[in-house]
Design goal:
By secondary structure, the chain is of the alpha/beta class. About 30% of the residues lie in helices and about 25% in strands.
């Protein structure tokens, strides 16, 4: 059964939310997990793609935008607003407003919320949806993103 974790950062800053996402993506990559990062739009995907190159000096995370074509290299983080392709359906980091398709079949689902009212309300809706599906959820409050 899928393991769902919500990370609640204290800041209302979207930038801080994305920086924290970069840290979790890096942690997943270093652990050998080639996750899919789900966004709402191609602009959001591009922003995160750019941020992964610059968020921390010396960090290298192989990643690329997913536009429907499966990359030749499987050991890469994919970022996109489309449903995750098969090889990347084990771990999803959800930065979108929706529940990922077929979330019940995932191994790990990570939700990152900032403290803005809009993000929290959308997150509460997803939380209830997962809960109604009988999935156990862990919640982590993050005071700092440092």
């Amino acid at each position: 059964m899928v393991e769902v974790s919500f990370y609640l950062i204290a800041s209302e800053s979207l930038q801080e939310r994305y920086l924290y996402a970069c840290k979790l993506i890096e942690k997943a990559y270093r652990s050998g997990h080639f996750c899919y990062v789900l966004t709402d739009t191609t602009q959001q995907s591009q922003f995160l793609d750019d941020l992964l190159w610059t968020f921390r000096a010396g960090s290298f995370i192989p990643h690329q935008l997913y536009t429907g074509e499966i990359p030749d290299f499987k050991k890469v983080i994919l970022i996109g607003s489309l449903d995750a392709p098969e090889h990347w359906q084990k771990t999803i980091i959800n930065l979108s407003a929706q529940c990922p398709a077929n979330f019940e079949k995932l191994e790990r689902l990570v939700e990152i919320l900032d403290n803005s009212e809009e993000t929290k309300e959308l997150g509460r809706n997803r939380y209830r949806h997962y809960q109604q599906a009988g999935i156990a959820i862990t919640t982590h409050k993050i005071d700092q993103t440092a």
